[in-house]
C-alpha cells in the first residue's frame, strides 16, 4: 500500500513509519517538524540524540534498501499545499498522528491553548475536507486517546467507543441506541481529541469516509525492532515536565537518581501500551478497515492499567530510587479505578507486551546511556491546570523543586 504518515517524525510516528516500510509498504512522512520547534521553545531536547528526518530516512535506505519519503507540510495551516500533495499522491491509507499531544503544554497559557485547539482541530478537519473534495477513498487511521472517556470510576468497563443506551420514548417505551461514549476531557489537548471524534462521526455519516479511531493509552518504552537496527534510527524520548509521560519519566528519573515525581497521592489509574505494541496495533487496524458507509471503527489501543503510585513503587523497588510526593499541578480526581475493554485487538491477534522488569530495566539502561544529555531543571512539571492551582503549586516554598522525599 501507499501510506501517508502524518506526524511521522514524532515519538509514535517514526517507529510506525519504519515498521510499515519494513513490511514493504510505500511510506510517505508528512510533518511540519513543529515538535522539534517546541523543544527549542521549551529549551529541552529528546533524551536520545535524534538526527534530522532527512538523515534518519537516509540511514533507513542504507540499512534496508527501502525509501521513506519526507514532505515538509503543515497540515493545519497549509491547506492548499496539503490538498495538492494528496491529489497527486492519492495514498491508499493515511495515518494521522499530526497533533500537539501534550496535556501540560496545552495548559501552559492562553497562547498554548489557542495553538493546541487551532493546530489539532484544523489538522483533522483539513484532512477530512480534502479527502471528500478529492474523492479520496483512503482508509484514515487516527491516533486518539483514552482520555476522551475521562478516567472516572463508574463501576463498569469502558467499552470500545460506543455505549449502548436505552432512551424512553414519548409512548413510554424504551428504545436502544449506541452512542459515542460521553466525552469527558481533562485538558485542552484531550478536548481537541473529543472534537476530532465528532468530526469523524460527521464525515463518516455524511460522506462515507472510512475511518478508524484508535483510543490509545500512555505509550511507554523507546525501542522497536526497527529502531534498534542502527544508532541513527533511534526513537525520540521525552522526559521533561511537559512532554515526558509518566512511566518514561519515572524510568529516566530512576536512571539519573532524581526522586520519582508522583503527583498528589499517585492514586490516578491510567491505561498503558508499549511502543512496540502500539506500532503493531496500527498494522492490525490498517489490515481491518471499515467498509464505506460504516460508522467510525473505534479500538481501545491499550494493554494494561496501572495506578501511578504502584508504578513509582515498582520502579523504586527495582532501582532504589526515592519517591517525591508533589502537589498535583493538574485538576484531576486524586483516585480513580479504570477497567478498559480491548477485545478487538486481542481477537485480531495482538499478544500484549506487559510491564516486565526486563523491559523496564532496558529503558533505564537507555536512560543511563544518555543521562549526560538530561537537564535536571527541566524535569519538574510546573504547567498548572487553573490559576488557583498555579497559586497553590507556587506557594510551595520549594517550587519547582521537590517538596517531600520518602
Ligand atoms: P509527537 O509530538 O512526538 O509527534 C507528533 C508529530 O506531529 C510531530 O512530529 C509534529 O511535528 C507533527 N505535527 C504536529 N502538528 C502538525 C501539523 N500541523 N502539520 C504537520 N505535522 C504536525 O507525538 P506522539 O507521542 O508521537 O503522538 C502521536 C499521536 O498519538 C498524537 O496525536 C497523540 O495524541 C497520540 N497519542 C500519543 C500517546 C503517547 O503516549 N505518546 C498516547 C496516546 C495517543
Ligand atoms: N503524573 C505524575 N507524575 C509525573 C507525570 C505525570 O504523577 O511526573 C501523573 C499525571 O498527574 C496523570 C498521569 O500521571 O495523572 C498521566 O500523565 P501523563 O503525562 O503520563 O499522561 P497524559 O497527560 O494523560 O498524556 C499522555 C500523552 C497523550 C495521550 C495520553 C493517553 O501525552 O498524548 O493522549 O497520555 S491517556 O492518558 O490514556 O489519555
TrEMBL record:
Q: Per UniProt, what is one Pfam family of this protein?
A: Epimerase
Q: Kindly tell me the pathway this chain contributes to.
A: Bacterial outer membrane biogenesis; LPS O-antigen biosynthesis
Q: Which residues form the NAD-dependent epimerase/dehydratase domain?
A: 3-292
Query: What Gene3D superfamilies does this protein's entry cite?
Result: NAD(P)-binding Rossmann-like Domain (3.40.50.720), UDP-galactose 4-epimerase, domain 1 (3.90.25.10)
User: Belongs to which family?
Assistant: Belongs to the NAD(P)-dependent epimerase/dehydratase family.
* Name used for this protein in its record: NAD-dependent epimerase/dehydratase family protein
Q: Which organism is it from?
A: Roseibium aggregatum
Q: What is the lineage of its organism?
A: Bacteria, Pseudomonadati, Pseudomonadota, Alphaproteobacteria, Hyphomicrobiales
Amino acid at each position: 500500500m501507499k501510506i501517508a504518515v502524518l506526524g511521522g517524525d514524532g515519538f509514535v510516528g517514526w517507529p510506525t513509519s519504519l515498521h510499515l516500510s519494513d513490511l514493504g509498504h510505500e511510506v510517505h512522512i508528512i510533518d511540519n517538524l513543529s515538535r522539534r520547534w517546541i523543544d527549542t521553545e521549551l529549551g529541552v531536547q529528546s533524551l536520545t540524540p535524534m538526527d534530522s528526518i532527512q538523515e534518519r530516512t537516509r540511514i533507513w535506505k542504507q540499512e534496508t534498501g527501502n525509501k521513506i519519503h519526507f514532505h515538509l507540510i503543515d497540515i493545519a495551516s497549509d491547506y492548499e499545499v496539503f490538498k495538492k500533495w494528496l491529489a497527486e499522491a492519492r495514498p491508499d491509507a493515511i495515518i494521522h498522528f499530526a497533533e500537539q499531544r501534550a496535556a501540560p503544554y496545552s495548559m501552559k497559557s492562553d497562547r498554548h491553548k489557542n495553538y493546541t485547539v487551532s493546530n489539532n482541530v484544523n489538522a483533522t478537519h483539513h484532512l477530512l475536507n480534502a479527502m471528500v473534495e478529492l474523492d479520496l477513498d483512503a482508509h484514515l487511521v487516527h491516533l486518539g486517546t483514552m482520555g476522551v472517556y475521562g478516567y472516572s470510576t463508574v463501576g463498569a468497563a469502558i467499552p470500545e467507543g460506543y455505549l449502548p443506551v436505552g432512551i424512553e420514548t414519548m409512548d413510554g417505551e424504551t428504545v436502544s441506541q449506541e452512542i459515542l461514549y460521553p466525552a469527558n476531557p481533562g485538558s485542552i489537548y484531550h478536548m481537541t481529541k473529543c472534537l476530532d471524534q465528532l468530526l469523524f462521526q460527521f464525515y463518516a455519516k455524511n460522506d462515507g469516509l472510512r475511518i478508524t479511531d484508535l483510543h490509545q493509552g500512555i505509550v511507554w518504552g523507546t525501542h522497536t525492532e526497527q529502531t534498534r537496527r542502527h544508532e541513527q534510527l533511534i526513537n525520540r524520548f521525552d522526559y521533561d515536565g511537559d512532554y515526558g509521560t509518566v512511566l518514561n519519566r519515572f524510568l529516566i528519573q530512576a536512571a539519573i537518581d532524581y526522586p520519582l515525581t508522583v503527583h498528589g497521592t499517585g492514586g490516578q489509574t491510567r491505561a498503558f501500551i508499549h511502543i512496540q505494541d502500539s506500532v503493531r496495533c496500527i498494522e492490525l487496524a490498517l489490515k481491518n478497515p471499515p467498509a464505506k458507509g460504516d460508522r467510525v471503527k473505534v479500538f481501545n489501543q491499550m494493554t494494561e492499567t496501572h495506578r501511578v503510585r504502584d508504578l513509582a513503587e515498582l520502579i523504586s523497588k527495582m532501582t532504589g530510587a526515592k519517591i517525591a510526593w508533589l502537589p498535583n499541578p493538574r485538576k484531576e480526581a486524586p483516585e480513580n479505578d479504570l477497567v478498559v475493554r480491548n477485545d478487538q485487538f486481542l481477537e485480531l491477534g495482538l499478544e500484549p507486551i506487559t510491564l516486565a522488569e526486563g523491559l523496564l530495566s532496558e529503558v533505564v539502561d537507555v536512560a543511563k546511556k544518555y543521562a549526560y544529555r538530561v537537564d535536571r531543571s527541566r524535569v519538574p512539571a510546573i504547567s498548572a491546570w487553573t490559576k488557583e492551582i498555579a497559586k497553590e503549586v507556587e506557594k510551595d516554598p520549594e517550587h519547582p523543586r521537590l517538596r517531600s522525599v520518602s
